[in-house]
Description:
Layout: E1 2-6, H1 10-17, E2 24-26, H2 29-33, H3 39-49, E3 54-57, H4 63-74, E4 80-85, H5 88-99, E5 104-109, H6 112-120, E6 125-128, H7 130-135, H8 140-154, E7 159-162, H9 168-177, E8 181-184, H10 186-193, H11 196-212
Parallel strand pairs: 1-2, 1-8, 2-3, 3-4, 4-5, 5-6, 6-7, 7-8
Helix pairs in contact: 1-3, 4-5, 6-8, 8-9
Residues 6, 26, 28, 129, 131-132, 163-164, 183 line the site of SN-glycerol-3-phosphate.
Amino acid sequence: MKIFLDSSDIQEIKPLNKSNLIDGVTTNPSLLAKQSGNFKTILKAIASEVKGPISAEVTATKFDKMIIEANILRKIAKNIIIKIPLTDDGLLACNYLAKKKIKTNVTLCFSPSQAILAAKAGATYVSPFMGRLDDIGESGIELIRNIKTIYQNYNFKTQILAASIRSAEHVTEVAKIGADVVTLPPKIFKQLIKHELTDQGLEMFLSDWKKSGKQIS
Ligand code: G3P
């Protein structure tokens, strides 16, 4: 399973990328809007820090303008991939870019039927939003499970990028189902590492070792 960071903040991406566990980054207009400075400079810095795919989203809603924006975003760095909303025009744009072998991430997916259309449009990734579905009383985990079953049934090549992740449990559940990628807010990435018993156990090992007076040398 690949791990992407869901962030547009280079200051929080850089230290986490030192772990060598980060395979890519997803940005979105809301995350980018929070950062001060030119969005191209921000995306360029992220794309040079993390070597994997960096999703940058079009903000146009009509096909022609989406393609113009996609071409602007692509020029920022070689590893930028184009994030497109799951709308009529978005699917058309996805199909157009797929035919030109340009990688896409079709975002704002909330149903299995939408995911089928993204795959048929040739999306490289589809981003089902788990947390936002949980927020309205539906199950993000069930959405991932259903998409996985459907994609396996038809051998669709589109990768499932589980997004809007709110907990370490979300990560475990989608890993069990076999999602290709999870995109994590930095806070959740840090949570994956932590376990109270790891900290307690380490403290005890080190204290016992110190008391013994032995040394590794
Ligand atoms: O980047 C898309 C997605 O992961 C957004 O998550 O937390 O805003 O629902 P959230």
